[in-house]
Amino acid sequence: MQDMARAVTLLVQAIKTKQSIIIYGDYDVDGLTGSAVLLLFLRQAGARVQAFQPNRLTDGYGVHRHLLENFMDSLSTDEMPLLVTVDCGITSHEAMAHARNLGFRVIITDHHQPQEELPAADAILNPHRPDCPFPFKGLAGVGVVFYLLMGLRSHLAADNFWQEPPNLKEYLDLVALGTVADMVELTEVNRVLTKAGLEVLNQRKRVGVASLCELAGLTGAIRAADIAYQLAPRLNAASRLGSAESAFALLTTDTAEEGRELAAALEEANQERRRVGTIVYEQARPQAEAAVGKGKGVLIFANAEWHPGVLGIAASRLSREFHRPTLVFGISEGVARGSGRSVEGIDLLGMLACGAGYLKEYGGHPMAVGLTMAEDDLAEFAATMEGVAAMVRTVDPEPLVVDLLPNDRELSELTAWYPQLEPFGIGNPEPVLGGRGIPQQMKVVGSGGHVKFRWPIAGRSHDAIVFNLLTRNQKEPPANQTMDFAFSLRRNTFQGRESWQLHGQAISFLTS
Predict the structure, then answer these.
(1) Residues forming CATH 3.10.310.30 domain(s) in the chain
(2) CATH domain 295-391 topology
(3) Are 177 and 197 in contact (CB under 8 A)?
(4) Are 205 and 442 in contact (CB under 8 A)?
(5) Would you say 362 and 329 are in contact if contact means Cβ atoms under 8 Å apart?
(6) pLDDT of res. 510
């Protein structure tokens, strides 16, 4: 990886001379886990190190001058501190130049797309650098940090720094958390890191994470899907409502009691995050329907009352539902801060580059972005984006392909092989199974229109569930009606017993 030797040299110097190391990480799960991995390893190496995440609501994404000045003011005047960014910094040109002027030596670790000119830094680790020979470009931010630690550990071990060097596999549970949460492809290196990380995660040695798993109801083997749908939202909830401090503390605590307290706080924050996110989505959805009816190619909405911490959640739901790139803004004191989500085949980050003249800050990757601009520029920016969308080739939703119409023997063989196919995720989707039949014992569960039933396969019935099946005006599912059913498999553990459940991907009721 380009600049690896330089970054390792800087860290070794800081460790051996006891110079302060400041870790400046992003506030999402990728940034939090990357910062935690780096902090815990450097502590093992005896470094003087502290970690910090900006506040999503008051600071926003990226590296900020005023926070760097605060760090420098807290240090002694003769220090030459080392600043290490995690999952951010690659587009923070002004802030990075300011850090160098303040006296920081700077290592940037990031996996977001760099701009044509790289920021000022002593070392920049990013596989997307045009001059970086690292063969796999899909690492998450925490993956970049993990490779940095591999380089650092190798150097210190060769220097006989430890009697027994630490085992880096101990950190792979955090690497798996950040990799899956950031929705990078689970292929090649990421697959190896995640699969090994899930092994460590299932040992439940990290007390804070173990407490969070317990509150999330994850009593059995933890899978990549559990990270994506259960653990990551809870870890993200803290920063969405303000500070990520409690989530970071949960990842790094070694006290069981503190881990339980922090997990409970994150569970409460997650409930509030859901409530607030639903408000934004339900208020924006009618606007989205109207915009689609007018033929809009990109959806852009703004409201001064929308909570800035849940804009990405609303944008994600709207982009999936209406299959268009979606940008959702909150407005405060004349500034519009937004989050965007795209659909497969449309590079939203590239679209933003066409309207960069309106933007104060922006960054991300083709499928997810963050941006800041003046409220007064929103209308012209929206018009520009609509013009760009008109030139982008429209990508229709991919049809759902059923991989197998199983009989009982094939289903049994598939479940036996499932652990070898995992971890599933982006780039390695789980198999989609299907069949035609009449569901039995259908009943509504929960408050989201979810439906459970028994599904026949070759004369045997299996537990099945479809989430969000019923519309708002529909109280009961159709009874005794033949349907085509596409589903994936989920392992459930209850009272120590494991069973398989069919999770609905799509259904179609037959009218005749």
Answers:
(1) 295-391
(2) Diaminopimelate Epimerase; Chain A, domain 1 (3.10.310)
(3) yes
(4) no
(5) no
(6) 84
